[in-house]
C-alpha cells in the first residue's frame, strides 16, 4: 500500500524524530530521482523512435506491411501487447504496462489523432470496449492481489488504465450508442448503465480505501453529468450557471473526502496509541 505523508507537518507536531525525518526525506528524494530518470528515458525513447520513423518512412511502411502479411492484423497486435507486458514486467515499467492497454484499444478499432488546435479520440465499438476492458480491469485487480509489491504495482496500473478506457467507452456510447451483435444499443442505455456503474464503483472504492478509483469515478461522473446536461438542455446562461454551481459543490466535497482519507493515513500520536 502506498501512503502519502507530510513530513514537515509530522515533524512539527512531534510525531516523528529528526532522525526519522531525515531518513524518510532521503528515501523520498531517491524515489523522485529514480522516477524522473525513468520518465526521461521513456521520453527519449519515444523521441528516437518517432525520429527514426520520420527519417525512414518507406522502410517502416514496408516493415509494417510485411508483419501484417506474415501474422495478420490480430497477430501483430498480440505480439505488440505481449512484448509490452513482458518488457514492462522485466523492467518494472508501469509506462509499458499501461501502454499495452492502449494497444488493445487500437486492436478494437480505437484511435486518437490531432489537428491544429484539436485532439480527437475515436472509439468505434463502445459496447465491446466496455465489456473487454471491464473484464481486463477486474482481472488486473484480481491478479494484483496475488503478486509481490513490485509486480502488484504494475498489475494495478494496468487495471486502472483499463478502468479509464471503460469510462471513455461509456462516454462515447452515451452520445452515439453502439452496434453490437447485429443490433444497436441506444445511447440512453449507455447513459443509464454508466451512471449506475459509476455510483457502484465509487462506493466500492470508498469502502476499499482506493483513492484513485473514487477520484476517477467523481471525474467521469462529472463528465457524464455535464455531457447529458448540455446534450439535453443545451448551453444557455441558465444551464451554465447551474452547471457551475454544481461543479463547485462537487469540487468542495471531493476535496473534503481526499483530505479525510489522507488524514486517516497519518500515524496515531504515541500518547493516543
Question: Layout of SSEs?
Answer:
Blueprint: H1 7-12, H2 18-55, H3 57-91, H4 94-107, E1 111-115, E2 118-122, H5 126-144, H6 149-176, E3 178-180, E4 183-185, H7 187-208, H8 211-233, H9 237-265
Antiparallel strand pairs: 1-2, 3-4
Short description:
This protein is mainly alpha-helical and 273 residues long. Helix content is 78%, strand content 6%.
Descriptive report:
It is built from nine helices and four strands. The protein has about 270 residues and is mainly alpha-helical. It folds into three domains: about 1-55, no CATH class; about 60-120, no CATH class; about 125-273, no CATH class. A two-stranded antiparallel ribbon has the order 1-2. Strands 3-4 form a two-stranded antiparallel ribbon. Strand 1 (about 110-115) and strand 2 form a beta hairpin. Helix 5 (about 125-145) runs antiparallel to helix 6 (about 150-175). The longest helix is centred in the first third of the chain and has 38 residues, at about 20-55. The two termini are about 20 Å apart.
Descriptors for this entry?
273 residues, mainly alpha, 3 domains, two-stranded antiparallel sheet, 6% strand, globular
Number of strands: 4
- Element-level helix/strand string: HHHHEEHHEEHHH
Shape: globular
Q: Would you identify the regions where 5 or more consecutive residues have pLDDT less than 50?
A: none
* Helix fraction by DSSP (H/I, runs of at least 4): over 70%
Amino acid at each position: 500500500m502506498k501512503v502519502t505523508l507530510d513530513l514537515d507537518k509530522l515533524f512539527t507536531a512531534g510525531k516523528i524524530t529528526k532522525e526519522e525525518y531525515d531518513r524518510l526525506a532521503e528515501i523520498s528524494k531517491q524515489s523522485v530521482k529514480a522516477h524522473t530518470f525513468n520518465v526521461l528515458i521513456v521520453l527519449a525513447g519515444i523521441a528516437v523512435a518517432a525520429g527514426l520513423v520520420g527519417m525512414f518512412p518507406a522502410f517502416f511502411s514496408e516493415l509494417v506491411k510485411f508483419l501484417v502479411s506474415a501474422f495478420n492484423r490480430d497477430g501483430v497486435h498480440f505480439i505488440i501487447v505481449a512484448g509490452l507486458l513482458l518488457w514492462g514486467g522485466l523492467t518494472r515499467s508501469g509506462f509499458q504496462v499501461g501502454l499495452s492497454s492502449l494497444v488493445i484499444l487500437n486492436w478494437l478499432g480505437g484511435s486518437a489523432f490531432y489537428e491544429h488546435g484539436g485532439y480527437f479520440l475515436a472509439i468505434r465499438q463502445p459496447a465491446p470496449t466496455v465489456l473487454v476492458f471491464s473484464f481486463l480491469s477486474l482481472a488486473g485487480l484480481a491478479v494484483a492481489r496475488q503478486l509481490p509489491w513490485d509486480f502488484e504495482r504494475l498489475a494495478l496500473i494496468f487495471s486502472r488504465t483499463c478502468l479509464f478506457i471503460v469510462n471513455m467507452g461509456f462516454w462515447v456510447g452515451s452520445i452515439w450508442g453502439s452496434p453490437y451483435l447485429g443490433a444497436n444499443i441506444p445511447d440512453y442505455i449507455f447513459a443509464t448503465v454508466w451512471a449506475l456503474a459509476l455510483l457502484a464503483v465509487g462506493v466500492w472504492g470508498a469502502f476499499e480505501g482506493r483513492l484513485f478509483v473514487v477520484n476517477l469515478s467523481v471525474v467521469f461522473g462529472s463528465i457524464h453529468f455535464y455531457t447529458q446536461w448540455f446534450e439535453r438542455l443545451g448551453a444557455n446562461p441558465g444551464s451554465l450557471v447551474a452547471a457551475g454551481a454544481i461543479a463547485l459543490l462537487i469540487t468542495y466535497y471531493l476535496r473534503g473526502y481526499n483530505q479525510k482519507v489522507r488524514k486517516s493515513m497519518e500515524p496515531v500520536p504515541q500518547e493516543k496509541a
